[in-house]
Design a protein that fits this description.
- By secondary structure, the chain is an all-alpha fold.
- It has one domain (3-156, 183-309).
- The protein contains 17 helices and 2 strands.
- The protein has helices spanning 10-16, 21-44, 48-73, 81-93, 100-112, 122-125, 132-143, 146-162, 166-173, 177-183, 185-202, 207-217, 219-232, 252-257, 266-271, 280-289, 302-309, and strands spanning 247-248, 298-299.
- The longest helix has 26 residues, at 48-73.
- Its EC number is 1.14.19.6.
- Residues 48-288 form the Fatty acid desaturase domain.
């Protein structure tokens, strides 16, 4: 049973679950528009401050693309499955070297077995709470590109090892989400490189490296980790949908730099996973009116969520 049905009626869920092609198109356009804006800002005022801002904004929108691919995986971005799949692949997933179809299979398993021994994401959340030193090392590796380079190198290596070996690919698919991604590198990598080349053609030769690869290797990896920690780090390992996942409140700055497209309403998403992301604030408000606020796992901001997971002095 959908966890949300224990707290919301079908009549309450139905309007929240209504999808909108117009809103889906706006979210995708907004994401790519923000990327274009960041590059344009540097083009107009080239200096270290606008360069750094562009890298951060683009990295946050690369996370935005991942979130919109996640929406498409739930068939919540558009009304039709075909449009969800096409946009989710070409405009959201492949630009960041992720595979929609493999992710869908993996992610739906996570929803079915959240915070249980069968949850494929359990290994990520079991690391928390951790120490301040450990969190600092993780964030440092992300922001200096070490995490991104290691991940990218792993994808390329596995792709080379599995190329042409269908039996090996099938076996690897049962082992990890990374193997899923590696099998599609031959399709996703040209899209990723094509975007970088297009950016270089718009500006100088190095712009593609600076404004696509660099954000991907640094800020994207950092905010991806922050998102994962905030959602399931140091939460209750149980089947209680109010406590085995966290919603983190986010102001305008956090929504711009860390939590685009309502990704912070993760408890609500787990309640009814096919509700579009832009409807999640309404679901949150509805749950609050039912007096569930005191029972829900929430954090007032991302700093507080990180502190719960271990961002405090040992």
């Amino acid at each position: 049973m959908t966890p949300g049905k224990a707290f919301l009626t079908s009549d309450e869920i139905r309007p929240l679950a209504q999808r909108s092609d117009l809103m889906g198109a706006w979210l995708v356009a907004h994401c790519w528009g923000t990327i274009a804006f960041a590059i344009g800002l540097f083009a107009l005022w080239p200096n270290p401050a606008t360069f750094l801002l562009a890298v951060i904004l683009i990295g946050s929108r690369q996370l935005g693309l991942a979130i919109l691919m996640h929406e498409a995986a739930h068939s919540a971005l558009f009304k039709s499955r075909k449009l969800n799949d096409w946009v989710g692949e070409w405009l959201c997933g492949w630009p960041i070297m992720a595979d929609l179809h493999a992710y869908r299979h993996y992610h739906l398993t996570h929803h079915r077995f959240t915070q249980t021994d069968k949850d494929p994401d359990l290994a990520l959340s079991l690391k928390f709470p951790t120490s301040h030193a450990s969190m600092r090392r993780k964030f440092l590796r992300d922001l200096t590109g070490q995490t991104g380079i290691k991940q990218l190198a792993g994808q390329i290596l596995m792709f080379i090892q599995l190329a042409g070996d269908d039996d090996a690919i099938d076996a690897a698919k049962t082992q990890s989400a990374q193997a899923f991604k590696s099998n599609t590198l031959g399709r996703a990598f040209p899209v990723f490189i094509g975007i970088a080349l297009a950016i270089s053609l718009v500006g100088d030769w190095w712009w593609g490296l600076a404004f696509w690869l660099l954000p991907y290797l640094t800020w994207f990896q950092f905010v991806l980790r922050v998102r994962n920690i905030a959602e399931h780090g140091a939460v209750e390992q149980s089947d209680n949908p109010l406590q085995n996942v966290r919603t983190t409140h986010a102001g305008p700055v956090a929504r711009t730099l860390v939590a685009p497209y309502y990704v912070n309403y993760h408890l609500e998403h787990h309640m009814v996973m096919h509700v579009p992301c832009w409807q999640l604030p309404k679901m949150h408000a509805l749950l609050m009116t039912k007096g569930l606020g005191g029972q829900m796992r929430t954090a007032p901001n991302y700093r507080a969520a990180m502190m719960e997971a271990g961002w405090r002095s040992s």
